[in-house]
Design brief:
The complex is a heterodimer of chains A (154) and B (104). Chain A is of the alpha+beta class. Chain A is built from three helices and nine strands, in the order αααβββββββββ. Chain A has a single domain, classed as Immunoglobulin-like (Sandwich), CATH 2.60.40.2470. The relative contact order of chain A is 0.19. Chain B is an all-beta fold and 104 residues long.
Chain lengths: 154, 104
């Protein structure tokens, strides 16, 4: 099992490195099939995580994305986030910038609506990006969520 | 051990919201057991697939950054009464679960 996980991990990152380097492959097509452990690693930047998950990290702000989340979370272990967009979404990611693993979750969409909701953990007060992939580009909306009690273990 | 997996479908205008609740600890692997001082091994759902009439319309990926007992929601389009919705998930220890429902 350990060997398998290792192989899977190295394969994924190998493919990514090649694709990112050459710009020939669309990594999103590769990753749509396999779970990407690289995307959820700790101690990486939000950009690196998005690159591993969605194949790109350049984002522009968009007014067509709405985040529904509390301004202040009393309990960082459960922070409900809802993302809604009118853009034709291919993927939606929720990124808590200051978390040990900034990418909390993302969803690949194929025929489903521009909506994604989840409850995430937040270690501390942080900006939360709702990142939408649409037409091969990343768009984001940002909201700061204040956390009084962290929820990332420890 | 099968974990409780519940699905709820809510109609919102011409769309349907699918909400899935799984009874799962979502351990990060960084938390310590207060009695033994040992790290609790990571245990979290990795992926969840949503099928509408047999076609995968959404595939959620996550790790331990999602809260315990995750509640995941997506929206399906152009659904008619009687359409089937299937969801299934797998975690990092190879456990899995699923739920089926139909649109009313």
């Amino acid at each position: 099992m350990k060997r398998r996980t290792f192989l899977k991990g190295s394969l994924t990152s190998g493919v990514l490195a090649v694709a990112a380097g050459a710009g020939l492959l669309k990594p999103s097509q590769v990753l749509a099939a396999a779970y990407s452990e690289a995307a959820f690693k700790t101690e990486i930047s939000a950009e690196e995580a998005l690159k591993a998950a969605l194949g790109m990290s350049d984002m522009s702000d968009s007014g067509d994305i709405q985040i529904k989340a509390p301004l202040q979370a009393e309990n960082g272990a459960v922070v409900p986030i809802k993302v809604q967009t009118s853009l034709p979404a291919e993927a939606i990611a929720i990124v808590a910038v200051k978390n040990p693993a900034p990418l909390t979750t993302y969803v690949n969409l194929d025929g489903a609506g521009g909506f994604y909701s989840a409850r995430i953990k937040m270690g501390q007060t942080s900006d939360v990006h709702a990142v939408v992939k649409s037409g091969g580009k990343l768009m984001k909306a940002t909201q700061q969520i204040k956390v009084t009690v962290g929820g990332c273990g420890g | 051990m099968a974990r409780l997996t519940k699905m709820k479908i809510k109609k919102a205008g011409d769309k349907h919201q699918v909400l899935v609740l799984v009874n799962h600890p979502m351990e990060t692997g960084r938390r310590k057991d207060s009695k033994t001082g040992q790290l609790i091994p990571a245990h979290f759902i990795q992926s969840m697939a949503f099928k509408h009439n047999g076609k995968v319309v959404a595939e959620a990926n996550m790790a331990s950054g999602v809260s315990k007992n995750p509640l995941i929601g997506i929206e399906i389009l152009n659904a008619k009464a009687g359409d089937k919705v299937d969801i299934s998930w797998t975690d990092n220890k190879g456990e899995n679960g699923s739920a089926q429902s139909a649109i009313k």
